[in-house]
Specification:
Elements lengths: L22 H30 L1 H4 L3 E7 L1 E4 L8 E11 L4 E4 L4 E6 L6 E2 L4 E5 L2 H36 L2 H48 L5 H48 L1 H36 L2 E3 L4 E6 L6 E2 L12 E6 L4 E8 L11 E5 L7 E13 L4 E8 L11 E7 L15 E6 L4 E3 L2 E8 L4 E9 L8 E6 L6 E5 L10 E6 L8 E2 L1
Parallel strand pairs: 1-23, 2-24
Antiparallel strand pairs: 1-22, 2-17, 3-12, 3-16, 4-11, 5-7, 5-10, 6-9, 7-8, 9-11, 12-15, 13-14, 13-16, 14-15, 17-21, 18-19, 19-20, 20-21
Length: 526
């Protein structure tokens, strides 16, 4: 059974063009085209007219201008001769003098001019008899002080031994102890001795009485002997009785003496003092030994300096002394005699002192190659500028330049005349042969003003018609023909303000009234 296709209503796609647009939109479009657009066009015409007539309403200050002077530097080929100057050969940096380090009289000269010497080789001898005697005396004094040092050390050893083992004090203490004990023993035995004496006294008294009672029965001699014994016994009793206080005082004194010796043994004051004094004596003796040792070394040094030696490996340039001549050491005044014996130089280190004319000095550079020609050489040899002296010769109107001789031949000697050819040094522009010579910009010196240590010039901006104060960097070279070289701050197309710049301010409107070419030149090669 067949199905029927859906029916499309095309009336919905129809557009009703008969309906009019809203009135509001039509009114806005009419206002834009009738008022705004004509007003904008009118304002544009008025602005264009005001810009065209600005010179009438805002007058500009008239000025005169001049272009920047442009010059191309000429590049000299490396090694090309620049100029020649005469000079003479001399040692580099200076001659070396073999001088006397000690005063004396020359005994022998061991070299002559032109001799080759080595470092330390003797070149002269002085009379050394006095110096040898001084050395012998210094050595004897040194030996004497060594003996004094040994004596001081022996005393120190004895003092230290006495301090460590005070035998003398110990013996003294023992002696005091013995005396004290003896006195104590006597004091203790004194009562017994007194008792014995009294017993003897009583026996003597009985013996005398008996002999007296016997009468004539005994002789008078026996009676006198008995009475003498009685008197002796009585004296013995009195003596023993009087010894007790003395023994007590003696015992106390011995006790104090013993205590003092014991304290001295404990403190050892004298022994310590002796050790300290011995140490001081050793130190003093060592100092004297050191002084005499230095005196010996000084005498040996003076004796060694009686032989004058070469300070370098080189050649004898000149002999300045003769045998029998008195020489002073280098510390003495020149009025008391000379000290230089010979002058030396190194044949491998020579230089040429060249008198360069002042107009050629700007072409001299440190390290610049040169050629050195002398009558002793068949062809020139190479050299190199090493220094320029800071002071010119006002009589010759020259400046001395020192040129080092590279590997000097043996025939080159000091004081030889030489002619030096200064060659052009290498320049960076030679690396690129197709490169153009560098440009150099110059301006009249009167147009450069300096304020606060900075240089500046007035230039005109032709696009905006205003004046600009442009800071510039001035070259170090001197002014040439009234022109200054500008190394930075300007371009070759800049125009400098010459007239009317006295009252200008940065950004002020200007009008070019003319061009002043008095200080300008065309591009040139110098």
């Amino acid at each position: 059974m067949a199905t029927s296709a859906p029916q499309l209503d095309l009336s919905q796609l129809a557009v009703d063009r008969g309906k009019p647009a809203p009135a509001r939109l039509r009114v806005r479009r009419a206002w834009l085209t009738r008022y705004v657009l004509p007003a904008a066009i009118l304002c544009g015409f008025l602005a264009l007219f005001a810009w065209a007539a600005r010179d009438t309403f805002l007058p500009a200050q008239p000025v005169t201008i001049t272009p920047v002077v442009v010059s191309r530097a000429e590049v000299t080929q490396e090694g090309a001769p620049l100029f020649q100057a005469a000079g003479w050969v001399e040692p580099r940096p200076t001659p070396v003098v073999a001088a006397a380090l000690a005063p004396g009289v020359i005994d022998q000269m061991l070299v002559v001019e032109g001799d080759q010497v080595e470092r330390g080789q003797p070149v002269a001898k002085l009379i050394d008899v006095d110096t040898r005697l001084e050395l012998a005396n210094a050595r004897s004094q040194h030996n004497l002080q060594l003996a004094e040092l040994d004596r001081a050390r022996a005393k120190l050893t004895a003092a230290e031994t006495n301090l460590a083992q005070p035998v003398a004090l110990q013996a003294k203490l023992a002696e005091s102890d013995a005396q004290l004990a003896e006195t104590a023993r006597e004091l203790n035995n004194l009562p017994y001795a007194i008792q014995a004496a009294r017993t003897q006294l009583e026996l003597a008294e009985v013996n005398v009485r008996r002999k007296e009672q016997a009468g004539d029965a005994i002789s008078g001699r026996l009676l006198r002997e008995a009475r003498a014994q009685l008197e002796t016994a009585a004296n013995a009793v009195k003596e023993l009785a009087s010894r007790e206080p003395t023994l007590r005082v003696q015992r106390e004194s011995l006790q104090r003496k013993r205590d003092a010796v014991a304290s001295q043994l404990e403190l050892l004051t004298e022994e310590r003092r002796a050790v300290a004094e011995a140490q001081a004596s050793v130190a003093a003796a060592e100092s004297r030994v050191e002084q005499t040792r230095l005196a010996v070394e000084a005498a040996e040094l003076r004796l060694e300096r009686m032989v004058i030696r070469s300070p370098i490996d080189g050649c004898v340039l000149s002999v300045n002394a003769h045998p029998g001549e008195w020489l002073s050491d280098i510390r003495s005044s020149s009025t008391h005699g000379a000290s230089a014996v010979v002058s030396l130089y190194d044949p491998k280190s020579l230089q040429v002192r060249v008198d360069v004319r002042l107009e050629d000095v700007p072409q001299v550079q440190i390290g610049q190659p040169t050629e050195i020609a002398t009558a002793a050489l068949a062809k020139p040899i190479a050299g190199r500028v090493i220094s320029v002296t800071p002071q010119a010769d006002i009589q010759k109107n020259t400046l001395q330049v020192k040129v080092a001789v590279a590997d000097p031949p043996a025939v080159i000697k000091p004081e030889m005349l030489a002619k030096v050819t200064f060659l052009a040094p290498p320049t960076p522009t030679q690396e690129d042969e197709d490169a153009s010579p560098p440009l150099r910009l110059f301006v009249p010196q009167s147009l450069v003003s300096a304020a606060d240590g900075a240089s500046a010039v007035w230039v005109v901006d032709l696009t905006e018609g205003v004046a600009r104060r442009r800071p510039v960097q001035v070259g170090r070279g001197a002014a040439e023909d009234g022109l200054l070289e500008i190394t930075s701050g300007l371009s070759p197309t800049d125009k400098l303000i010459v007239g009317g710049r006295e009252t200008l301010t940065d950004g002020a409107r200007v009008r070019v009234a003319g061009e002043d070419n008095g200080g300008a030149t065309t591009n040139q090669t110098s």
